Structure formats: structure tokens, C-alpha cells
């Protein structure tokens, strides 16, 4: 289950705001935070947030995922993710994931992993706090953690209708490669009403569901804000689960 949410976060964060390619622009804000809710059968089952803060000399990107309501007694999730990213190169140097989840039909997971990226050598050191453990692995060039890849695209890329986007992510479990296709359309949103938006869609295997093929769709506004207003998971044997943007904070 955790790996599914890692992929969701990666996809959600990647396309929050895609500006023109070129040098890294300096955002007009010091921080921004997006709040989401996922609904199923007319009730909220998951709350999530993601934020970007400008530090010196790095950025900090954070994400939270919590189950709520009727789902919580059966599956409790209280996960936290943080990425520390070099301001000049936009490469990650530290990624922390705090996993706290358990369920009636799933194994309890409670651990904190810190991934230290050495981009010159292509090595990642994984430090686990409980039980204590250290592991080193080699990763291909241009591999990012799930939050760092978002910030790179946030500051350097733009998406055109019909374009495909490939991303390579390492989350401490395995290197994942996902390809998205962009299309344009209109979508209703609880926060802004009907908006013109870009939809990025990809077929993906869900390891938590026996590697069965499903799909992810991310909708973001087709304007200078590029706010991600909806992300929909098409889960095999489960159905659709929607994350909708409920609130935005800027400071």
C-alpha cells in the first residue's frame, strides 16, 4: 500500500506548477501549501497536503497523507515525507519518509528512512532508524526522490498538448519509471468551479494490488498558476478514488 501512495505523491507533486523552461526563476512567495481530500462512496477517506518552502541555500518540499472517517478503523495511515533540494542544481541531497500505518488486512509498518543522495557518484545511502540499518545502492543518472522531481519540473518545464513526460523516481524501495501523456479539457472543481485544465495520464502497475495495471490521471489548471485541482486513481478491483484540491495557502 505504501508504494502506491508514493507513486501518487510523485505524480501529484510533479505537475503542481510548470513554468517556462530556462534558468531557475525565483518564486514570488516564500512558501505555498496545497490541501486535498480523497472521496469514496460519498465520504472523505484520505486527507493530504503538499508544501514548498524556500530556504537558504535549499528548498524544502513536504507531503502528508492521512486516512480519515470510516476508513481509519480498518486502515490507519499517518505518513510524512520531506525532501531537501539544492537551490542551484535542483538535485536532492536528503529525503526523509516517516511511515506509520496499519490495518486489519495489512501488515503494520512503523519506520523512518533517510535517503542521502550523492549525485556525483550516483549512490544513495539509506539510513533506517528502527531497527538501525544502513544500505548503499547505485541509481541511474537523473534519478530523483518523489518530491525533488516535482520541484525540478516546477521550475524548469512546460507541458504541451499531446506531449509525453518520462520521470525516474527512487523512493528507497526501487527505481520507478513512469510515462505520462498530456491532453487538454475542462473539469469541474469544488474550489474554482469549471476550469480549463491539462490532464496527464499514465498506466501503472500497483504493487499493493498484485502488480495489476491501473491508471493515474492528474488535472492541473491551464493557466499561469498550474494548480493541480484533481488526481484520480483507477484502481483494479477497487474502482476510482479522487483527490480534489480543497484549499491553498501562500506566504
Written description of the protein model:
The chain has 251 residues and is mainly beta. It has a single domain, classed as YmcC-like fold (Beta Barrel). It has helices at 2-14, 148-156; strands at 31-40, 43-54, 58-67, 75-86, 92-103, 106-118, 123-128, 133-138, 164-170, 175-189, 193-206, 212-221, 228-235, 239-250. A hairpin with a 4-residue loop joins strand 6 and strand 7 (123-128). The chain is globular and about 45 Å long.
List the helices and strands and how they pair.
Elements: H1 2-14, E1 31-40, E2 43-54, E3 58-67, E4 75-86, E5 92-103, E6 106-118, E7 123-128, E8 133-138, H2 148-156, E9 164-170, E10 175-189, E11 193-206, E12 212-221, E13 228-235, E14 239-250
Helix pairs in contact: 1-2
